[in-house]
Amino acid sequence: MIAPLMLLVLGMGSANIEAVRAACATTANAGAGGSFGIGTLNWRGASHYTRNPHPGERPYRERVPNMVTKIGASATSIIGFQEFEPPQAQAFLNATNGAWAIVKGKNGGGQPSTANAIAYQPSVWKLDEVRYVSIRYGGPVIQIPLARFTSSGGLGSVWVLNTHNPAGAVGGTNAMRDAAVRAEAQALQRLQADEPSTPLFLTGDMNDKTRFKRLFLSLASGWSAANQNDNQIDWIMGSPGVTFSGTVVDRSTNDGAHEYTDHPFVHTTVQLAGPTPGAPGGSAPGRGVMPTGITATPGGPVNGQVLVANANIKLRSGATPGIRALAAPSPDFITLNEVEDVPLSQMRAAAPGYDAYREKQPADSDDAGQAMGSAIMWRSDTWSLLDGGRVKIVDDDHTVFKGQNKLWDRFATWGIFRRSDGAVVSVIATHHMTNAYRFPRQWGNPPMSRVEQYGLGMDYLIDLVGVLAPYGPVLLGGDMNSHPSDGPNAAAPRMAAAGYRYTKDSGVIYNFYAAPVKVARTWEISKAAVHSDHPALLTRMDMNGAGPGGNGPAGTLPGGTSPAGCPPCPTFGNLGTVLLQNVSAPGNIDAAKVAAAAAYQAGFRGEDLVTAVAIARVESTWDPRATNGSHFGLWQISAQHKGKVPGWNTQADIFDPLLNAKYAFALYSARPGSGEAKFADWIPFEKTDYRQFLDVARQAVAATAGGATNVADTGCTASPIQVAGELSAALSARVDAMMKTSTGLCSLSWTRGAPCTYKNQCPKVVDAVYGGPGVGRGYGNGEDVAQGIINAGLAQAHGTGLDPLPPVGAVVSYNRGDGVGHVAIYVGGGKIFGNDYGCAANGVYGCVGFADVHTPSGSVTWALPKQAFDLGGMPAAAA
């Protein structure tokens, strides 16, 4: 069950400090343990390209690298391969550079053959024994491989049999395939009798769907299928006691061998007994445990300036001169990374007048290096340390670094400091995982991908920020090892979603801060100057009365007067105070709003936010308490994922809509690609098409999750104009500025290049909203603008009609069929923005307003412009 009321807030007041702690603190997580990935894949034999190619088929050498990428992203360590001909096998082994090995079968002549093979990762599994099972493959009798592997990570041993039952193309018949299934089942049953405690698996291209499953399960009592339906001929089966979860049928690989092959890649997670103590992949105690019993009291408003230096000093020999260089501008705080071998006494000696802190070395010697790597220094004549500590944010990162297998943890050092005037500031120094997007390779069989681990680390950092915020503004700095454009789990987008802005150097050193704090100046110190392989970052900030409890000045709400030259700013809906209540009638719009609010808070954005809400309708009918015993909540999160996001300590926890959404976002973030590919944990398994719920999902997003961008991002007062939906802050500011001027389109500096006349005025709305003279008018009359954008290749999405509604920001052109055409912008909340709407009389030059989205009639075409479509500048000095 879920609590009757869940209050989701973007910022938290000091009165909520105990609630914050309760929400953010977690117990030590035992980790997933006892699981590994297994798959089956038919490669489409290389010889088909010359003998009988599919239309558009490409040679194997062009396809193998693509498939290697898919395999690398699958988290599998054992895969059954079919139609894996020798040149493909060699190309695969070359491309994976020792990460994979192959167990061969035998051909009709009794010679070793890769055509049916078992691929495995030798760093994860030791090959103990190979046997063979004979089946007829059309004409010849072949021997398929049956291999015994023992885990190097303490999971014990498993047997795997891989097969390719004969297709009609090679003379296979139902009787021949049935005989093969019987031979396979008999061999596995004999093995099961000999080793009843050893898990057994069958993988392969069975060339039968339901027929295979029905026959095999009638022969192999107690076995189960990983496949969730009978729509494939590629199967994974497991013996009694084996549990499958998260099965993926990746149909993107079934592309007629154009980029991949002509079969889906099927892979799944197997749950076995937990790892032995001390084995890689377990979760050390302490990961994500938040501080409690903090010996500090909240401070008052912080005014004046604070200067922070952030640096990674890799070598002890460079520490003293590097710290001297950092201290030269007299920063208030210095955060240091990779200083595990630099004593605090050396730091203090290098910068007289500064003190230094990090928690003492942990008892666990495996954690000693990384745990001691981050430290905080501060001006002791201005600041005093009230309390401090360390939080583990990553446990057992199985990374491959410069060709070497590494097992690294990551930590954040935190401190709460009081200034001589009583102001309190918290500082966090952290050194995150090496770039998980650019270096995803792992060794062993960890339960999470590196991207998932990085994202989980960001969850813990954001939790820590939330614990410290009730005492005063929080400044987080360090080597984040990610770039803003890397992906949704990278540091910059995750912190932005939590309401934090940043400065950064030319590399990966960041300083994060929240409004009302503003940057007065930021600059770099060169690598040479700080004796490091990273430049250092310095950021001088105007604190502007920042106080405890969130992103606003102490005791105030966002507001105030507009800075000189700043256009009026839009408001952004009400997600900051969305009340999530029990849903009495799952499936309705109110239930959808709960899902929309939770999904936005978790990190979903844009059209993917709408998709996520629609998928929740299919998964749970928007019932937060839905379960089938193994999957839970709005997005039906599998029990196997427990631990990927902090907070799931009891079964009841996952019914919390926000926590459920965070798990959904973690799964989404770990998937490569874009669009539907990001939702591969749901869409392939859904019998109901989620698209039929997009309309109501979009309405729910517009109504509850509407663009909850931090108003303080522009530093301006909020205007009374409500612009709902996901319209960006920049576009919203333009719309708002037009609404605040008496002649809308005519008085704005960034649209003066276009004539202000009544005739053909509507395309100028596109000019004004999307950035400059002629952008809209360049595509003809109003009814032609959307199609013109499409024809120019500048649409990231397009369509016709208004059912379902277009995405927010879409340019909507229509022709009523009576010679009257028009163009407007869909701004969310069921509203379009354009000229003539809400005007007192036609003929008022530049008159703009809002109308119901269904005002257009006749022929409707819409286009959502790409980001690059914005050819103009921000309206920095709007009237």
TrEMBL record:
Domain Transglycosylase SLT: 597-667
Record has rRNA-binding as a keyword: no
Ubl conjugation is among the record's keywords: no
This protein's name: Transglycosylase, SLT family
Pfam families per the UniProt record, alphabetical: Exo_endo_phos, SLT_3
Domain of life: Bacteria
Sorted UniProt keywords: Plasmid
Record GO terms (molecular function): catalytic activity
Endonuclease/exonuclease/phosphatase domain sequence ranges: 64-263, 326-493
InterPro entries: Endo/exonu/phosph_ase_sf, Endo/exonuclease/phosphatase, Lysozyme-like_dom_sf, SLT_3
